[in-house]
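Annual report, structural modelling task.

Input specification for the flavin mononucleotide complex:
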Amino acid sequence: MRECKIVSKKFHLQNSHTLEVSRQNGGYIALEKIKECTPTQIVQIIKESGLRGKGGGGASAGDKWELMPQDSEKPSFLAVNCDESEPGTFKDRQIISYDPHLLIEGILITCYAIKAKHAYIYIRGEYKEYQDILQGAIDEAYDAGLLNECDITIHRGAGAYICGEKSALLESMEGKRGHPRLKPKQKEPEWFFGNPTLVNNVETIASVPFILENGANAYRSYGTEKSPGTLLFAMSGHINTPGVYEAEFGTNMLEYIENYGGGVKNGKKLKAIIPGGVSCGVLTAEECEGLTLDYEALRGAGSSLGTGGMIVMDEDTSMPEALKNILEFYHEESCGQCTPCREGSGWSDKIVGKILDGQGKKEDLEKLFELADSMNGKTICVFAPSISTVLVSFITKFRQEFEALVS
Ligand SMILES: Cc1cc2nc3c(=O)[nH]c(=O)nc-3n(C[C@H](O)[C@H](O)[C@H](O)COP(=O)(O)O)c2cc1C
Ligand code: SF4
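The model returned the following structure:
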């Protein structure tokens, strides 16, 4: 397996979070380099690199940057998404802990490209420790005169999962409840107090300095044609060495787990993997055979790559219990704006709870499919369709386990 370190290059260094160590190891070189380029040239380089958003959706970063006006009378903003509340996902905090200056450099380059003078980092409420490290790095950057033309402000969330959704994040930053907004029909930027705003994930922005320093082709030399570059894949669950390890897209999933995760714990057999945070459909061990870690392959397998946070489950895992755990989370976190989501998240949680308590009936499984159908494609954001995908994948693929509890 080829070692590739684009964002994790400095993670192993002592005091890697400091400006001194960052600079000694190539930090802020890309920022110097961009002075030769115009903002539109930088957007073009990002487009050519094929960089895809690493917050879950995998949208083309260059296409999103291009939506930002270059000649607006209104100020433009960058909002960096560090909400990171998806269970199974803990990669952005690695960047903030071990290389916050890489993120700051990426922010400065992005702001130059989209002509923004102010960037906000929206950080998950529970991440106080990481917020402090980040603030320390921002203070160092101010003292070193790196932030003379652009301000960076950390905005701390209050711990709601839905605030990771980009429009809910902006509502929250505006001081309102974090409710997702209706999506526009045409492609346009996001809006922060009516001003054009780009929202990108921490890792997306942290990948920018490498591309600007080494060129679009250097980035494309990793990964696959349609999923170029690398991702900080994460592993948790029944694994010997859980953690975050950078790998190129297109890496074989089971080899990755064996190589970095040391295989399934206690010599047990693999039963299932949720490949990219709990919003992705579950895969059986058989489905994981030969599967590669890229957007296309995971979609082809009927799931998605999501954030690359893999949750590994061994042969002893009760799939109804695992599903209950996920549904409790969704039930708690639905923002409640849409009836199918508000009611469906709670109702499905209650039904699976009833099944686990031995009070379930066969019809309950059909009711769960009906609920899944009612939540799919009829809501403001994709939170409810994700519940639908998860429900259907668990019950379809592990039906015998559910049936055993209701017969
Ligand atoms: C329910 C929900 C939660 C989300 N949570 C996050 C999150 O914690 N972090 C993140 O970067 N993106 C999250 N997203 C995706 C964002 O809406 C947005 O697409 C992303 O921040 C854009 O950045 P990217 O293109 O760099 O990935 C979430 C989306 C949904 C629907
Ligand atoms: S789908 Fe759920 S989380 Fe998304 S806006 Fe509707 S109620 Fe809120």
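The longest strand covers residues 116-123.
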